[in-house]
Specification:
The complex is a heterodimer.
Chain A lengths: L1 H20 L2 H14 L5 E4 L5 E7 L7 E7 L5 E3 L2 E5 L4 E7 L8 E8 L2 E9 L4 E2 L4 E7 L6 E6 L10 E9 L5 E7 L3 E4 L7 E10 L6 E2 L7 E4 L4 H27 L1 H8 L21 H7 L4 H11 L27 H5 L4 H8 L6 H13 L18 E3 L2 H10 L1 H15 L27 E3 L17 E6 L12 H10 L3 H9 L7 E6 L2
Parallel strand pairs in A: 9-16
Antiparallel strand pairs in A: 1-2, 2-6, 3-4, 3-7, 5-6, 7-8, 10-11, 11-14, 12-13, 12-15, 15-17, 18-19, 20-21
Helix pairs in contact in A: 5-6, 6-8, 8-11, 10-11
Chain B lengths: L1 H17 L13 H20 L10 E4 L5 H6 L2 H20 L8 H23 L17 E4 L2 H21 L10
Antiparallel strand pairs in B: 1-2
Helix pairs in contact in B: 2-5, 2-6, 4-5, 4-6
Classes of the chains: A alpha+beta, B mainly alpha.
Chain lengths: 525, 183
């Protein structure tokens, strides 16, 4: 027994070595699969070398003596050497016997004896128990068409039997357990159709003999191969269309914007009107100090007029609320300006100065003005001059002028001069063509006369009663620090509605001469 | 009279020699699906006869060819030896199946027998198309060579199927005519 055990071990070792060199691992996998698939207790198979092997599993590894006998065509029975092996994949021990010679197309009788008693008895034909290897080189590629995949593989190495193989292709969406199967005979390529677009698929293939001449078990499945189907043409088309339309719209909008960029810029980011160009160096050199600028700038348009202003004392302005319609006829007048100044339309500002009458309480006003001039900061606190309380009233027509001129032609001319000064910029003699800021003032005619009324913030404010020859002009300013922000051209229309003329009046006429928060200008007859 | 019979004999000799209608060269039939068709029909016949459990015909003791194939031995044989083994086996099978017609059997079995005989004729044509040497009867008594005995009709048809599946198919698959141009 010990010798037999020693010999048995040697045989087992040699057989194991033989199986390892000839594909021992395939034997294990074959055995594992047949243990699941073959229903017979004594399982037999023919490998690719056309050698038949029979095996059976053992529950408990005991030292039983097995005898294997076989015979072809009912001829003399011959013994076969039995070996054992532990199959790791199945966690089982099997005894097996590989026949030294295998005959096909003839009946084979196999018997297994254990301890002299028949354990298994089976009659089979070798050509019916082939076990083929799985297909090789499985390849899955997109066919170039939507929802299709090209599957190709190579048959297992089995001599003379390539044309009798049947293949089974299994495919499923990656991650899904629901798969489909397609059978293909002889050919080693297959086109999978009606697949989902833009989806990743998993593909397996297995093979068996067709059973006409040779029969076999199904081989094991190949390792899965993954492949993606092409995305839907419609999806690609929609994306391309959307992108192209978006690009076209973008280019069109860009073209429009670039061609009208100036207009758009003007609309969206309008220039803040600034009188800097009319006051050279005022803001750059003199930092807004109008008084200083006036004093230094002798050759400018406003300079001379301002110079004239500086030469003469400020003319008094009457507060509207204190003006009576009949008290101005005999008011003393100031001396006229020099003639040469009057002749120049640009110096109408000076005429303004000369044209105002001095109200009865002019001295009080004079003092106020001087005080304000000396202390401009008191503007905001001035109780006398409040922007809310004062307003501009210009009501003069040709008739009034004519009437006045009959009495005092010079005065009339002087009276008109201030109006011209108010509403002219540089050399424009026509009052109708005066500042656009003041264009809202209703103008009687284009003769240069101006007839306007304005009151702001208090539409219900009652004007002082207008006499037959009275002209009122009140100007309210918000301060010498000119804030042009609200005075854009677009706001002029608003101002026209609300009749606010504060900044324009002040900046053009009075400037640094009267740095008041508000002013009253009145001329009456 | 002599001239008439002489001319007639000459004509027969010429016809026998030329064998019009039979000597025309056949296109080689290398497609094994043709043989597979005959094998499938042989399977059907074997299954039908097995179903009637040997009660279909009273005939017994048939001489049939050997069907076993040892691939190592077979591949060691040359084409002529393989051809001789196949042709002699077909001849023996044909005689055994043809002898069934003398016995009574059912119509179903009779139809299978007729189909089998017809298929054997076709298989001979296929072998001829592949330029396989014809059967040459043994000069000396060699009937037991490469033959065996079948005790029943069912066994006869099993032998028939196995012979076609094995030796005949291997011969057709390795026919030199079908492998010309393939190195």
């Amino acid at each position: 027994m010990r010798k037999m055990d020693g010999n048995g071990l040697k045989v087992v070792f040699m057989l194991c070595l033989a199986f390892v060199t000839t594909g021992g691992q395939s034997f294990e996998s074959t055995v594992s699969q047949l243990l699941r698939d073959e229903t017979e207790d004594l399982k037999c198979f023919v490998d690719r070398k056309k050698d038949l092997t029979c095996f059976w599993e053992v529950e408990e590894a005991r030292n039983d003596q097995y005898t294997f006998m076989y015979s072809f065509e009912n001829k003399k029975k011959m013994p076969c050497v039995v070996s054992s092996r532990f199959v790791l994949a199945s966690n089982k021990t099997v005894f097996f016997c590989k026949l030294p010679k295998t005959l096909f197309f003839v009946a084979l009788d196999v018997q297994v004896f254990r301890d002299g008693r028949t354990l298994y008895n089976r009659s089979l034909k070798a050509e019916n128990v082939f076990f083929v290897d799985p297909p090789r080189n499985l390849t899955v590629m997109s066919s170039g068409k939507e929802g299709q995949l090209n599957v190709s593989w190579l048959p297992p190495l089995l001599k003379h039997m390539d044309d009798i193989m049947i293949y089974e292709v299994r495919y499923a969406v990656e991650g899904s357990h629901m798969g489909k199967v397609e059978e293909k005979a002889a050919s080693t390529t297959l086109v999978l159709r009606d697949l989902q677009s833009g989806t990743r698929y998993k593909v397996w293939v297995r093979v068996k003999l067709d059973g006409v001449s040779y029969k076999s078990y199904w081989s094991s499945w190949t390792d899965p191969v993954f492949a993606d189907t092409l995305p839907s043409d419609m999806d690609l088309l929609i994306v391309l269309l959307v992108l192209s339309i978006g690009l076209i719209l973008f280019l069109l909008s860009l073209t429009v914007i670039l061609s009208h960029h100036k207009f758009l810029l003007k609309k969206l980011w309008p220039d803040i009107p600034t009188p800097e160009h009319k006051f050279p160096d005022l803001f750059t050199v003199y930092k807004g100090d109008f008084k200083e600028w006036m004093s230094q700038n002798n050759g400018s348009i406003w300079g001379r007029s301002v110079h004239v202003f500086t030469e003469e004392p400020p003319s008094p302005v009457e507060i509207l609320s204190e003006v009576s319609p009949t008290s101005y006829d005999t008011s003393p007048r100031e001396e006229r300006k020099p003639t040469e100044e009057v002749e120049e339309s640009e110096q109408t500002d000076s005429g303004l100065m000369g044209g105002w009458r001095e109200p009865p309480h002019a001295n009080w006003l004079m003092e106020q003005m001087r005080a304000l001039q000396e202390n401009p900061e008191s503007l905001s606190q001035s109780t006398l001059l409040q922007s809310h309380d004062t307003y501009v009233a210009l009501n003069q027509n040709s008739q009034h002028v004519q009437e006045v001129s009959e009495r005092q032609t010079d005065d009339v001319f002087e009276e008109t001069l201030p109006l011209q000064a108010l509403f002219t910029t540089e050399g424009t003699s026509s009052l109708s063509a005066s500042h656009s800021d003041l264009g809202s003032l209703p103008q009687s005619s284009g003769s240069g006369r101006l007839s306007s009324q304005s009151s702001f913030e208090d539409p219900n404010h009652t004007w002082p009663p207008k006499g037959p020859g009275y002209t009122y002009m009140a100007v309210a300013d918000s301060g010498i620090s000119m804030d042009y922000s609200p005075m854009s051209s677009s706001n002029i229309a608003e101002l026209r509605k609300h009749r606010i003329y504060t900044n324009e009046y002040k900046n053009e006429i009075f400037g640094n001469k009267w740095p008041f928060s508000s002013q009253h200008v009145e001329s009456g007859y | 009279m002599f001239h008439g019979s002489g001319l007639f004999a000459l004509l027969l000799m010429v016809l026998e020699w030329t064998r019009p209608g039979l000597s025309s060269p056949l296109r080689p039939i290398c497609d094994l699906r043709v043989l597979d068709l005959y094998i499938k029909e042989a399977w059907d016949a074997e299954a039908a006869i097995r179903a009637c459990k040997d009660d279909c015909s009273s005939a017994t003791n048939f001489t049939v060819p050997l069907t076993s194939v040892d691939f190592d031995v077979w591949e060691a044989m040359n084409i002529e030896e393989q051809a001789q083994e196949v042709q002699s086996g077909i001849h023996v099978l044909n005689e055994a199946i043809s002898s069934l017609q003398a016995f009574n059997q059912t119509d179903v079995i009779q139809s299978h027998i007729d189909a089998t005989i017809s298929n054997i004729v076709s298989i001979r044509q296929v072998l001829r198309s592949l330029s396989i040497p014809e059967y040459v009867p043994p000069t000396s008594g060699g009937e037991d060579k490469e033959t065996q005995k079948a005790s029943s009709v069912s066994e006869l048809f099993q032998i028939h199927v196995n012979f076609l599946r094995g030796k005949v198919r291997l011969l057709l698959a390795s026919a030199p005519v079908c492998h010309q141009g393939v190195s």
